[in-house]
Design brief:
Pfam families: MFS_1
CATH class: Mainly Alpha
Structural class: mainly alpha
Subcellular location: Cell inner membrane; Cell membrane
Family: Belongs to the major facilitator superfamily. Bcr/CmlA family.
Distance between the termini: 37 Å
Number of domains: 1
Strand content: under 5%
Number of strands: 0
GO molecular function, one term: xenobiotic transmembrane transporter activity
Number of helices: 19
Radius of gyration: 20 Å
CATH architecture: Up-down Bundle
InterPro entries: Efflux_drug-R_Bcr/CmlA, MFS, MFS_dom, MFS_trans_sf
CATH superfamily: MFS general substrate transporter like domains
Shape: globular
Order of helices and strands: HHHHHHHHHHHHHHHHHHH
C-alpha cells in the first residue's frame, strides 16, 4: 500500500486521480469539526449545566482557533512546504478531540475546542495554497468549486452522524468520531505530492513575515476579497451557531432529524458550486463573485422579513436559509481565487490571512447570536442579513468595477 501511495505522489497533481478527492478530505476539517456536534449542543448544555450562550462559546472558540491558527500554518508552509505542516496539524487536531471527549465543564470544552481547531485549520489553509501552486486564477476558482463538490458530503453526513450517535451514546462519543476522521485525513495526505518547491520557499524571519502581512493588508483588492468574503462566512457561522437552538428548541425538531434540515443547505451549495465551476471559466471569478454578493444580500433581507413577519413558520425559515446558504457557492471559491492570484510566492501566507479573517469574524458573529438570544430566530436572521449587506458594500467599495473575463491573469 505504501508503494502505491508513493506512486500516486510521484505524479503531477493535475494528473493524479486522487488529487481533488484528497484535497476535499483535507478541506472537510471545518464542517467535520463543527457540524458533527451541532445536534448535541442542547444536550451538552444540559449535561454541563451551561446556558445557550456558554455552549455557543465552544463553537466560537473553534472558529477563533481555526482562524488564528491559519497564520501559523501559512507561514510554516511557505518555508517548509505543504505536507509536513498538514501532518502536524492533523496530530494536534487528534489531541484536541481526545481532550474534548474527556472534559467535565464548558470552559475546558471551549479550550480544547480551540486546540482542536488550531490543528484542524492546517488542512484547509494549505489546500488552498496547493491549488494556487498548481492552477492559474480562474481555473483555480473552478477547481475550488469542484473540490467543494467532493467535500460536500461532509457537512451533510457530519450532523447526521452526530444525531445518530446521540441515539446510542452521549455527546462525548461525537468527539471520538471526529478523531477517527483525523485518521482518514492522514491517509488522504499520504497520496498527495509536495506542490511548493524549495526554490519558491520564503524565510520565517519576523521582518520577512511582517513585510508579507504589510503587503497583503495594504492591497486594496486583496482586502476586498478577503474581508468581503469574511462577512459572508460570518452569516454562515451565524446559521451554524443559531440553528441547533432554533430548530431543536424553538421548533421542536428532534436532534437526530436536525442533520436532514442542515443537509438541505449543503445540497443547495453543491448545486450552486456546480454552476459556478462552469460559469467562472466563461464570465470570470470577479463577475461571479459580484453576482453572488448581490444575491446573498437580497436573500439576507428576505430572511429577516420572513422571520419578522412569521411567514411560513419552520418551513418559511428553512426555505430562506436554504437560499442564503446555497448562494455562498458563488462567493467562497471566487473570493479566495481573487485573493491569492497576485501572490504566488506567498500563497500560504495569503491563504492563511484570508482564512484567519473569515473564521475570526465568524467567531464574533456566533458570539453575537448567543449574546442576542431571546428564544426567537430573529438574532440569527438579523446577523445573517446584516453581514450579507456589509459584504456587498465591501465588494463594491474595494474591488470596484469588474471585467467579464480576465484571460491574462495567472
Amino acid at each position: 500500500m505504501l508503494a502505491r501511495l508513493a506512486a500516486v505522489r510521484s505524479r503531477l497533481p493535475a494528473e493524479s486521480p486522487f488529487f481533488i478527492a484528497a484535497l476535499g478530505v483535507l478541506m472537510s476539517f471545518g464542517p467535520m469539526g463543527t457540524d458533527m456536534y451541532l445536534p448535541g449542543m442542547p444536550e451538552i448544555g444540559r449535561d454541563l449545566h451551561a446556558p445557550q450562550d456558554q455552549v455557543q462559546w465552544t463553537l466560537s472558540a473553534f472558529f477563533l482557533g481555526f482562524g488564528v491558527g491559519q497564520l501559523l500554518w501559512g507561514a510554516l508552509s511557505d518555508r517548509f512546504g505543504r505536507r509536513i505542516p498538514v501532518a502536524t496539524g492533523i496530530l494536534l487536531y487528534a489531541v484536541g478531540c481526545v481532550g474534548c471527549s474527556l472534559t467535565t465543564d464548558v470552559g475546558h470544552l471551549a479550550a480544547w475546542r480551540f486546540v482542536q481547531a488550531v490543528g484542524a485549520c492546517a488542512g484547509p489553509v494549505l489546500v488552498r495554497a496547493m491549488i494556487r501552486d498548481v492552477f492559474e486564477r480562474d481555473r483555480a476558482a473552478s477547481v475550488l468549486s469542484m473540490m467543494i463538490l467532493v467535500m460536500g458530503a461532509a457537512p451533510i453526513i457530519a450532523p447526521l452522524i452526530g444525531g445518530q450517535i446521540l441515539i446510542w451514546a452521549n455527546w462525548r462519543w461525537i468527539f471520538w468520531a471526529q478523531a477517527a476522521f483525523g485518521v482518514i485525513a492522514m491517509l488522504a495526505l499520504a497520496t498527495l505530492p509536495e506542490t511548493h518547491p524549495e526554490t519558491r520557499r520564503t524565510s520565517l524571519r519576523p521582518m520577512v513575515l511582517a513585510e508579507s502581512y504589510r503587503t497583503l493588508l495594504t492591497n486594496r483588492r486583496y482586502l476586498g476579497y478577503a474581508v468581503g468574503s469574511s462577512f459572508i462566512y460570518a452569516g454562515m457561522f451565524a446559521f451554524i451557531s443559531g440553528s441547533p437552538f432554533v430548530y431543536i428548541e424553538l421548533f421542536g425538531v428532534q436532534p437526530e432529524n436536525y442533520g436532514f434540515l442542515f443537509g438541505l443547505n449543503i445540497v443547495g451549495m453543491i448545486i450552486v458550486n456546480t454552476l459556478n465551476s462552469r460559469a467562472v471559466m466563461r464570465f470570470g471569478s470577479d463577475m461571479m463573485l459580484r453576482i453572488g454578493v448581490w444575491l446573498s444580500a437580497a436573500s439576507g433581507i428576505l430572511l429577516v422579513a420572513t422571520v419578522a413577519g412569521g411567514w411560513g413558520g419552520l418551513w418559511g425559515l428553512v426555505g430562506c436559509l436554504f437560499l442564503f446558504m446555497s448562494l455562498t457557492g458563488f462567493c467562497f471559491a471566487n473570493s479566495m481565487a481573487g485573493a491569492l492570484q497576485s501572490f504566488p510566492q506567498m500563497a500560504g501566507t495569503a491563504s492563511a490571512l484570508a482564512g484567519m479573517l473569515q473564521f475570526s469574524i465568524g467567531a464574533v458573529s456566533g458570539w453575537v447570536v448567543g449574546l442576542m438570544a431571546n428564544g426567537t430566530a430573529m438574532p440569527m436572521a438579523a446577523v445573517i442579513g446584516g453581514t450579507a449587506l456589509v459584504s456587498l458594500a465591501l465588494n463594491l467599495w474595494l474591488i470596484g468595477p469588474v471585467r467579464r473575463r480576465q484571460h491574462c491573469e495567472q
